[in-house]
Write a structure and sequence with these properties.
Strand content: 5-15%
Protein name: TIGR03915 family putative DNA repair protein
Organism: Pontibacter locisalis
Order of helices and strands: EHEEHHHHEEHEEEHHH
Low-confidence stretches: none
Largest sheet: 5 strands, mixed
Number of helices: 9
Helix content: 40-55%
Mean pLDDT: 83
Distance between the termini: 70 Å
InterPro entries: DNA_repair_put, DUF4130
Shape: globular
Strand order of the largest sheet: 4-5-6-7-8
Structural class: alpha/beta
Radius of gyration: 22 Å
Number of domains: 3
């Protein structure tokens, strides 16, 4: 009989599934978030509740088997969110626990290859977000940026913006995943905005913008025009480094502001 596990959608939830599967000696055919799980007609579905003690035991076991970079890659695979990522994580952990030698370079194992691919894609998306995010300054002094990345990279870019904009209050909001990060000059907390607030902030209307905001945008566009040498234009190379899906974040890609 096929067994499916459901969890609460957290990384800790997946680690609890690993513990429960070993304790029950029942390997999953699928692992799904509770709110996305489909009823099983021919099989059993086991609902798993996240347990910190079980999470700790699994994590401590992994620390003995994997390097810090491999553990980071596992977490990045969770944030990767591509179909079947839960089973990739489970298979990777199971392989680590059942193999005597180091598995991190065993690319013949599909789960190892997938984790490495996920880590590379997450790395690229993280650095693109760090480079392409543009803030708008609201009238209350808070800087706001809406993002919609392919992968859930918001947790990975927070430190970058804490260091870069340590003297400013800012919000980076992932409109695809419906949560954001708010930095209040001391620490950063994760927030959720209601639909009314989000619709107003996504493209800040003129009455919410600081008087300086349009000047900043115009200055940036003028700078871009001056450093952009027409004779050296290479559209294909430009698209490779700045795909069109990122243009919505860039001031220099917005309609020109008339002086």
């Amino acid at each position: 009989m096929k067994t499916s596990y459901t969890y609460d959608g957290t990384f800790e939830g997946i680690l609890t599934v690993v513990f429960e599967a070993y304790e029950r000696k029942t390997w999953p055919c699928s692992i799904e978030q509770e709110h996305l799980a489909q009823p099983q007609i021919f099989g059993e579905t086991i609902k798993i509740t996240t347990d910190e003690q079980k999470v700790s035991r699994v994590w401590q076991g992994l620390q003995k088997k994997l390097s810090a970079s491999a553990l980071t890659a596992l977490y990045h695979t969770f944030l990767w969110e591509q179909p079947g990522f839960e089973m990739v994580i489970f298979d990777y952990i199971k392989l680590a626990f059942t193999t005597q030698h180091n598995i991190e370079d065993n690319y013949a194992a599909p789960c190892v290859l997938k984790v490495q691919q996920a880590a590379k894609q997450m790395f690229r998306e993280k650095h693109r977000m760090e480079a392409f995010v543009r803030f708008q300054k609201a009238a209350d002094g808070v800087f706001f940026a809406a993002i919609s990345p392919d992968f859930n990279v918001l947790p990975l870019i927070i430190k970058h913006f804490e260091k870069r904009y340590a003297d400013q209050q800012w919000i980076i909001y992932d409109i695809r995943r419906h949560y954001g990060a708010f930095y209040n000059l001391q620490n950063t907390e994760l927030i959720n905005l209601d639909q009314v607030s989000l619709s107003r902030l996504r493209n800040l209307p003129a009455e919410l913008l600081s008087d300086e905001e349009e000047n900043y945008k115009q200055l940036w566009q003028v700078y871009f025009d001056h450093v952009n040498i027409p004779e050296r234009k290479n559209p294909k190379l430009h698209l490779r480094h700045i795909p069109k899906r990122y243009w919505k974040y860039l001031s220099e890609k917005q309609p020109r502001i008339k002086a």
